[in-house]
Amino acid sequence: MPDNLHIRQPQDPQRINVNEPWEVRYWTNKFNVTEAQLKQAVKAVGPMTAKVKAYLGK
Hints:
single chain; about 0% strand
């Protein structure tokens, strides 16, 4: 099934998928961080949004 380009937010807001460029853009904007900072946070604590948010101090 192809991606729905009309989706403005992740389908699973509890997980961050750094393999989808549009999701990376969404989360970097939401947390006001760079792509590198987001990917480092996911690498450090995993893809769960709450853990990434805490890691980033947001």
